[in-house]
Amino acid sequence: MSLNSIPESIEVQKHSVLLRECYQKLCGKPFPIDLSKLPLAEALYTSDWIIVSHGVEKDPIFNYANCSAQALWGIDWENFTQLPSRLSAREDKVEKREAALKEAFAKGYIENYVGIRIDAEGKEFYIRNVTLWNLIDREGSPLGQAAMFDTWEYL
After folding, report:
1. Burial level of 143, CB count in 10 A (0-12/13-18/19+)?
2. What whole-number distance in Å separates Cα of residue 47 and Cα of residue 121?
3. Which residues have C-beta within 8 Å of that of residue 75, sequence separation ≥ 6?
4. Which residue among 37, 38, 59, 70 is the one 20 to 30 A from 102 at the CA level?
5. CA distances from residue 107 to 7, 24, 80, 99 in whole angstroms, order as listed
6. What is the tens place of the pLDDT at every residue in 102-138?
7. Rounded to a whole number, what is the distance in angstroms from the first to the last CA of the chain?
8. pTM recorded for the entire structure
9. Which domains does the chain have, with CATH numbers?
10. Spatial CA neighbour of 19 closest among 61, 58, 66
């Protein structure tokens, strides 16, 4: 699958709904992406915002990366959705990343996170104004976490 191909599956459509609903519920505000012109899954997938999420595995694996995220990291959907999310940061930056994820887990979400990530070629980039939020089912059980941002720069 190319970086521009929208994964066609019911699961991706359901996950897109989960991303939006959990954001709105936990952050208490409307989703910041214009959803008026395209179906939800397509709007999220083609957005200029970077959107990623991972599951609840012991070593969480990315289960969603929109086209902008794939382009930034230089990884296609198939490979991105097999990548442990901890590998998105250098080993010496993982502790700060983990602390932010724990804070978001405890509070439901956090805003204005900043951090350094690494792309597939080993180039570091700085992310800022990141919102991290929990993904939960209707009963409140954890399904994962998501991150969204639109501000980044290579170091």
Report:
1. middle
2. 23
3. 65, 83, 119, 120
4. 70
5. 31, 14, 27, 12
6. 999 999 999 999 999 999 999 999 999 999 999 999 9
7. 29
8. 0.93
9. 10-154 (3.30.450.20)
10. 66
